[in-house]
Each structure stands twice: as C-alpha cells, then as structure tokens.
Amino acid sequence: MTAVLTGAAPARQLHLNINILHSGFVPSAWRLPEADPYAFADVRHYVRVARIAEAAKLDAVFLADNASIADQIDFRPITALEPTVLLASIAAATTHIGVIGTASTSYNEPYNIARRFATLDHVSAGRAGWNIVTTADAGSAQNFGLDAVPDHGRRYARASEFADVVKALWDSWADDAFVGDKASGVFADVSRIQPIAHRGEFFQVQGPLNLPRTPQGRPVLIQAGASADGRELAARHAEAVFSASQSFEESLAYGRELKSRAAALGRGPDAVKVLAGLTTVIAGTEAEALRRRDELVALIPWRYSLKRLAGTLGISADRLQLDRRLPDDLPLPAQGQGNHTFFLATLAHARRHGSTVRQLIHELAGGGGHRVIVGTPEQVADDIERWFRGGAADGFNLMPDALPDGLEAFTEGVVPILQRRGLFRTEYQGTTLRDHLGLARPAAAAGLKAA
After folding, report:
1. Residue 324: exposed, middle, or buried by beta-carbon count in 10 A (0-12, 13-18, 19+)?
2. What angle in degrees, to the nearest 10, is found between the helix axes of 228-237 and 152-170?
3. Which of 127, 272, 327, 382 would suit a FRET pair with 89, their CA atoms being 20 to 30 Å apart?
4. Are 211 and 205 in contact (CB under 8 A)?
5. Dihedral of the CA atoms 362, 27, 138, 251 (nearest 10)?
6. Residue-range domains of the chain with CATH
7. How far apart are the C-alpha atoms of 31 and 36, rounded to whole Å?
C-alpha cells in the first residue's frame, strides 16, 4: 500500500506523545498474560515505556492525574502516582524526551505549581510541560473539603487567573539574574529578580519564585477542554492542546476555531499545536487487529463498561440497553458542571455511526471517549498522514491498547513508515520540549528585559 497523499514532505513537523495510562488504554490490558498487574504503581514500568518512546524519537511522555479514585478499582488499575514526582524519575532515566504532567488548578495553589514544574524543568534540563486541568469529579471535590464540584464557569475563571500567576512567577527572575561570581562574591543580581505582587479575584501572590528562570524560559503549557470555557482557556494560555475529536471534520473545525481564538487574543496563528487523542490496536493484518481488540473487550465485564459509559454520559447505567442506541435526550453531565470533552466525543461517535451501546463499547475499545484505530501499521500510518497533511491535527497523543507491547507495535511498525514518508524525525534536533514542538522560548517579562 502506498501513502494516502503524495508530494514533497510538509514543512510542518508531526508531533507524537505517548500517554502512559498505566497498563494501557483498554481497561482489561492488565489481564494480558505478559502484563504486570502492579505496573500502575511501579516506576520501572513507566521508565521502560519512556525509554521505548525516546528510542523512537517521540516528543514527550504524558501523565494524566486524578485526586481521587475516579474509576472502578475493583476491576482496573487507576492513575495513582503523583505525576511530577514520577516524571522526575523518568527524566533522570532519559536524555531527550519531554515530560508532561497534569496538575489541577482547582485543588492546588499557583506558587506550589509554579515551583513544582520549574523544578521539573530544571532537573530535566528543559523538558517539562504542564497540562492545565480544572477537575470535574465529585470525589476530588470531597477530598478537598467541598460537598460538590465548583461551578464550571468559576473553575475556568480560576484556572485562567491561576495560569497568569504561574507564568508571572516563572518570569520573576530575568535570564541573567543568577550570577554565581566567586571573585566578586555576587551570587544573584537582586535587581533582576522582582516580586509579582498579584492581587486578583482568586489569588494574592507576592512572589518572586525561589528558583531561577528555567532552561526553557517556562515549561510548556498544555490544555485539554472541549467546552467554550476550555477553548478560551486554551486560546489564552496553551501552547499545545490534547483534543478528543472523533472525526477528521470535527478536529479540523476544532483546530481552526481554537487558532482563530488565539489569533484574536494577539497570539500568532500557529501559537497552539493541536494533538489529537488516538488509541491504536495494531497487528500484522486487519483481521488479527480486530481479533485482538475483541479479545481485550471480552475481558471487560459488561457491568464495568456500562457503568463507565454511563459515567461519561452523566446518566444512570440502567438507562443503557446493550442492543439499543443511546437515549435521545442527553444533556451535558451534571447540569453542565461535569466533563464536556468525553461526553461530546462519545456522543458524536455514537450518533455518526448509529451504534448500539454494545457496538459503541467495542468501537471505543471499552467505552472511553478517544478515537480508536484498529488495523495494520500501514493503515495507522495512512490515517495519521491524512489527518496531519489535511490540517486536522499537528500531531497525536497516543494511547496504545496495552503497554508496553502496544507502544512497541507502534514504534516498530508505524514510526518507520512515517519516517520513510518524511513525516516524522529520525533524530532529535534539539534537547528541550520546546525544541521538539517547534515552540519559541518565551521572552523575559517586560520589567526584566536586558538593556
């Protein structure tokens, strides 16, 4: 099979991250014969996956996070280890691959997050990224002393101010503020270090940060959100977004609208990279790949899949019937206060394909909201090329069915095809996450620019 589209290699660089979802994207991945059920809490598992990804020259590893037990732990592993601590271990075991972690603006304070990710950027020599989330599950709210999830609009207003404060703290040292001159005895030039003196609706933060400016200037800012509030937050602050579009057309429209919002805020038309979520189930033939998916889905109890799907849709599981389509009257979850992204993606897929609940669970490899490709390395590469060349995505946030073997199937089968087609790097061209993503180093804050 030849490439879907021919012609000269694009000037743009395809970007590929690996989302290390413990044992893999499919909920039953931990039950495979070669899998380690304890991998979700074993740093060696994450380091192994990161090294496989780095050998294939992927841009970054990414870790999601929850501040509660947000899944059905009686059946599947959960996101358990704190991301920045784990990513520091991964950074110590690698040399080039970026390390992106999730931290919530709802249940943290700006100074802690600024310090934590600045530390990660220093210890990784400039490879850190922060995925900004607002956290919509009730369990997390209750773990931080709240009876209910805060209002959606207030969460995002807090998140935007939170990001402003974090960026100001990262910029509170000029690039040349650290001196370390033994002869003169000047350790730091305090005229080049300034408090931020922030007084806002949600936060009062004096600053400055207690760390010099990081190797990248700032860690890379990432966001994921399909709601209007989420898109506005991304347009204002994000340098990359993790999206969950189910079709080429949806992703194309999403990217255009997001980049238009960013341009209207005075940012460049290419200021934000769109990295679409992509789950892969890969085998030597399409029939073998379909069989692998079906075998994985068969290992998932129906009660789990129904409850998970119902949770995504914000309804009771007893409203779902396996051999019927989704109910017609599905409003946004929790009166609009819940997670919009996966609700919209799941609903869009079900409506487009006319899927019954049983079919939907198979098509989404267990009921998750991300797009799933089942096929050969060539078929996966063709799909990636079509989306990339067509402008529907700048890259992909990969979620293999199982880890590490699903990632190895991608790096050994798909990556060489993408490289032969001139779509993906054969060597790293820089050392920082900004280098990998083609992002400029942010300038110093106005009051601290060199004369």
Report:
1. exposed
2. 10
3. 272
4. no
5. -50
6. 15-279+393-448 (3.20.20.30)
7. 8
Would you say 336 and 243 are in contact if contact means Cβ atoms under 8 Å apart? no
> Which amino acid is it at 47?
V
Structural tokens at position 330: 């599905």
Structural contact between residues 395 and 273, judged by C-beta atoms closer than 8 angstroms = yes
* Separation of alpha carbons 222 and 245, rounded Å: 17
